[in-house]
Amino acid sequence: FRDVLLPIGWERVERESILVCLHPLPIAKIVEPVNLRPDEVETAVEAARTILREHGGSLLAWWIAPEHAVIGEQLEQLGLVNDDTPGFEAVENAMALVDAPTGNWARVSS
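Below the sequence we write its predicted structure tokens.
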């Protein structure tokens, strides 16, 4: 969520070691670690919870990439559950263009 364009009504809240993506959908708000060191995890969890409360939210999901796997156990010790979250289940679907497009290209002028 760091690098995507956000739809209207979505907001990024950045702190030193986390990014929280707030949105109006009835699913978890996303937390991404940003250069989060293991000794900062407890502070980061409390910061994310504070941001969520300040924006009227009630559910966070931490988006943990492989490079942050080391903090998983600490998150669980702080009460986070390693389980599917509605809207962010372990199975995802995607579409990809795997071959070059064929046909004629439309020209667009500005």
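The longest strand covers residues 18-22.
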